[in-house]
Amino acid sequence: MTDFGAELFDRVAADYDRSVPFFATFGHRLVEWVGPARGARVLDLGAGRGAVTAALVRAGCSVVAGDVSTAMLDALREAVPEVPARLLDAQDLDLPDASFDVVLSGFLVHVLPDADAAFAEVARVLKPGGVFAFSVPGPSADAGWWAAYGRIVDEFARRVRDSTPYEPVTWESRADRAGLHHVSRTTTEVSLPIDGPEAHWAWLMSHGNRWLYDALDPADRTDFRSRVLRGLREDHPAGGTRLIAGAEFHRIVKP
Ligand SMILES: C[S@@+](CC[C@H](N)C(=O)[O-])C[C@H]1O[C@@H](n2cnc3c(N)ncnc32)[C@H](O)[C@@H]1O
After folding, report:
1. Is 189:234 a contact under the CB 8 Å cutoff?
2. Which of 10, 169, 175, 221 lies 20 to 30 A from 214 at CA?
C-alpha cells in the first residue's frame, strides 16, 4: 500500500493548509457536528497542523493532539501552542485504556495501512459511552472533476506500483469488528476561492495527494502536472479557480 505516513507528511508540513483554509474549515465543521461538551477530554488523532485541535480548543475541550509526523507536530505547536502535541501512531497508541471522552480524526482513517488496528486502539482508549468521529473524503458538486483527477492518478500510479486490490470494507463493519457501534453519518462540502489552476495544483501537492508526484520519475512528473493542469483549465467547473470538495463525517460510540 502507498505510504501516507510520517515521511510524506514531514515533506508537506511547511505548505499544509496554508494557502486555503480547506482542512481548517472541515475541522471546524466536524467539531460543530459532534458538539463535544466543554471540558471533555478529547484526543485528536492524525492531528496534522491542528485543524480539528484548534476547533476543539475554541469549544472549550481539553485536547491531546497526536500525529506520526514530527514536522506536522512542529507546525501544530506553532498554530495551537497551548495543546500537548504527541508523537503517536494511531494503530498502536501509547495511551492508557479508557482515558478519553471523545476521539476525533480529520482525514486520517482512509489513508491508514491498518484501519482495523486504529479502530481497536480507539475502542481501547475511549471511556464507555465515549464517541469516535472522523472525516473522510466525500461527494461534492464538482461536475466529475475529482473522478477525472482520480483516473489520471490511477493511470500514473500504475507506473510506480502494482494496482492494490480493492477491499470492500465499510466504516460500519470496521466499527462492529472493534466492538463499537456506528450511529450516524453526514456529508458536507466546500467551494473556496483559489488563485487559478497553478495555485490549485500547488494546493493538490500540499497534502496527501503529493505521494504520487514524489514517486514518479522526472519525465512522468512533468507529464502528470500538465495533465492535471489541463484538466483544471478544461474540465473543472470553475476552471480551477475554486476548490470544490466534499467530506463524509461518521459518528461511532463505544457501548
Ligand atoms: C490528511 S492529514 C489530516 C491532518 C488533520 N487532521 C487535518 O484535518 O488537517 C493526515 C495526518 O495524519 C497523520 N498520520 C498518518 N499516519 C498516521 C498514523 N499512523 N498515526 C497518526 N497519524 C498519522 C499525518 O502525518 C497527517 O498529519
Report:
1. no
2. 169
Cβ of residue 108 lying under 6 Å from some atom of ligand 1: yes
| Closest C-alpha to 73, from 48, 51, 95, 103 | 48
pTM of the model: 0.95
Q: Domain count of the chain? A: 1
The CATH number that applies at residue 76 is: 3.40.50.150
Per-residue pLDDT of the chain in tens (255 residues, 90 and over written 9)? 456 778 888 888 888 888 899 999 999 999 999 999 999 999 999 999 999 999 999 999 999 999 999 999 999 999 999 999 999 999 999 999 999 999 999 999 999 999 999 999 999 999 999 999 999 999 999 999 999 999 999 999 999 976 665 566 899 999 999 999 999 999 999 999 999 999 999 999 999 889 999 999 999 999 999 999 999 999 999 999 999 999 999 999 999
The answer as to whether 209 is a domain residue is no
Residue nearest to atom 8 of ligand 1 (CA): 106
